[in-house]
Amino acid sequence: MDPVTHVTAGLLISQLAPGPSRAWSAVAGVIFTLLPDIDWFLVYWDRLAFIRHHRGFSHSLLAVLLFALLVAALGRVLGGPRWFKPLLLMGLAILGAHLLLDLATSYGTQLLNPISQRRFALDWLFIIDPYFTAVLLAGAAAALASPAWGRRVGAWCLAAAGGYLLVCALFHLQAMVVARQVFPPGTQPDQEVAALPQPFSPRRWLLLAASPGEVRQAFVELPAVPWPDSGAPVTWTEAPPAPPGQGSQAPPGQGSQAPPAAYRPPQALVVHTWKAAASPGLKEPADARKILDRYLEFARFPLLYRDQALESGRVLEWLDLRFSVPGRPIPFGLQLQLDAHGRLEKWGIGRGGGEQR
Fold it and tell me: What separation in angstroms does the CA of 198 have from each of 205, 283, 325?
């Protein structure tokens, strides 16, 4: 989730949990909720390192325990032994909530780091959800305003936020039911199917099916009541095939953007197909291969979007299609530019690989 959501959740929990004082609890709550995101500083060093290690060890179960012990020990030094246990319990609650909120998104969180670098994702919430944040913000403001009625309001807001999260989980179940009907198992070799949240509504979802050489997607708006076994018919049409080498259904000149599609009900879906460009056969140079391998460790639905020959060499561009939003540029694209001799000239990660390194 975004930093505002994390901070408001940390402040709210700090006022509901036992602590040394309301003011010091608020300070500790902010510290606890920001500690896992110390890996954000990697973005100023190397964007490849950022996407590889963000939500890595600092977001692991082991880090939760270490961070809680560290701040509790610091509290013991500053305030005496009576501060240790309340800060430890508060830290475990806030840091655990931080991990849960990040786990609920589709970015992926390395819960078992350093034992494993596997990324876990529940795919329940978009990374920015203003409704969820507003509920937590209201609760935090009330809890900070009054130690009596404010704490009760804050507790109700925290419960409401938990209820909203469960509703999103139910919508995700329904979206997966639709996705498996649109992309039935066994229709493509090694097919991976997912339903990923979209911004501004828990009813809007991106349905994805990846198989070697292509990724298919549809944007759906679910009924208001999330009943996965409703039995409602699911129908769809295939969008016209993309021009060779383009990879998306976007009009010419639109670049590496998701198709400007509307969110449609399950009874009238449109399936868009991204075809991979010709295989680059990229074995040399070793530095380019290393960059690509690290990018593919992060990318969940990668596609070679562009393989373009230039007079001065060649440009290769990969996209991670899990971040598709209709008509919007796709972030976390990787671009490699090779010279006429096949050597790596420059590379970049960003929207269309625009941020060069």
Answer: 5, 36, 7
